[in-house]
Design a protein that fits this description.
The protein has 317 residues and is mainly α. The protein has 3 domains: 62 residues, no CATH class; 64 residues, no CATH class; 162 residues, no CATH class. It is built from 11 helices and 5 strands. The chain has a 3-stranded antiparallel sheet with strand order 1-2-3. The C terminus is likely disordered.
Length: 317
């Protein structure tokens, strides 16, 4: 009846972002011609994103063999989609092992989800295949998944390219803002050359009438990037790796400097999940730590301290 249809689809929709697949197991009216206008409209309305789940070909069959045969491939597809979108993390090492055909008899697929670590026996995930054919099907599925996750290198190349641009942009903007801060603190003592540079910087950062409210905001031209989530995430991680390497180099060159101590876990967290507070706008960032904001006189420091002190000043905000 209509209530069963409405309730069933509501349950499917409730769990559509989880590693589950809801499908119709029983139907009073397998023939769509016998369905009411309300039922037809409701199925059509929900078909845009859960079409696979509600369009079982043999709608009249109530046999579990038919239901499982239809549902198991959808579950594997769901796991793949959730993994590619970043909602689920699989063990890459295990995937490579399975892709090589090295499958233990009682092996389970390891999944890290928002709700905790889970495991799913491969014999259950491939319950629709004969036991003799299961290893080959597992190998085929994991190879396809590994290929989709690895890509063709374009994502990594783009991430490194974006990371390099962000790095240089950060350095360029920081030098500008160090100068802006320094010149503002001793405006009456500036040389002609420094005053010319000061005026250029004020114009560049829209500083008027001595209003320096936004003088330390870090500019970022990638806020509206169309890059994929994976590329963006990889760019941030690449940027952090580069920052850590530079921090290590500086600490080795100046072992007694307090500026180059190891970053704390809290500071690393702020790098990965920075906050900004532009005028009339605040929130967390979803793209890159280069939009971190610092304010006050934290940038009135000696230039030779380098960008790393700046990084520390930024992330301590």
């Amino acid at each position: 009846d209509e209530f069963g249809l409405f309730a069933g689809i509501a349950v499917v929709r409730e769990f559509k972002n989880h590693i589950t697949v809801g499908i119709p197991a029983t139907l009073n009216k397998a023939d769509r011609g016998a369905m009411s206008a309300n039922s037809l409209f409701y199925e059509w309305l929900n078909s845009y994103d859960i079409k696979d789940a509600i369009e079982r070909p043999d709608r009249a069959s109530k046999k579990w063999d038919d239901i499982v045969k239809f549902a198991a491939p959808l579950l594997r597809k769901r796991i793949g989609n959730q993994t590619e979108s970043g909602n689920v993390t699989l063990s890459y090492e295990q995937l490579l092992t399975l892709a090589d055909g090295l499958i233990k008899e009682d092996e389970s697929l390891k999944l890290a989800t928002t709700f905790g670590d889970r495991s799913l026996p491969l014999s259950a995930l491939f319950i629709d295949t004969l036991a003799d054919n299961r290893p080959e099907q597992v190998k085929k599925w994991t190879n396809e998944l590994v290929a989709a996750l690895a890509g063709n290198g374009a994502d990594a190349e783009k991430a490194i390219e974006v990371s390099a641009i962000l790095w240089q942009k950060y350095l360029d903007d920081f030098v500008d803002r160090i100068d802006l801060s320094e010149y503002a603190s001793r405006e009456s003592e500036l040389t002609d050359e420094e005053r010319e540079r000061f005026n250029e910087l004020k114009e560049k950062y829209s500083v008027k009438d001595g209003n320096f409210e936004n003088e330390f905001s870090v500019q970022n031209s990638f806020e509206k990037s169309t890059a994929s989530r994976f590329t963006i995430r990889l760019a941030v991680l690449h940027l952090m790796a580069k920052a850590s390497i530079e921090m290590l180099r500086c600490s080795q060159a100046a072992p007694n400097s307090e500026f180059y101590t190891d970053l704390t876990d809290r500071e690393r967290l702020n790098l990965l999940f920075p906050f900004y507070n532009f005028k009339k706008k605040s929130g967390s960032l979803s793209f890159c730590p280069c939009m971190l904001l610092a304010s006050g006189q934290s940038f009135l420091i000696r230039r030779e301290s380098g960008w790393l002190l700046t990084l520390r000043s930024l992330i301590k905000r």
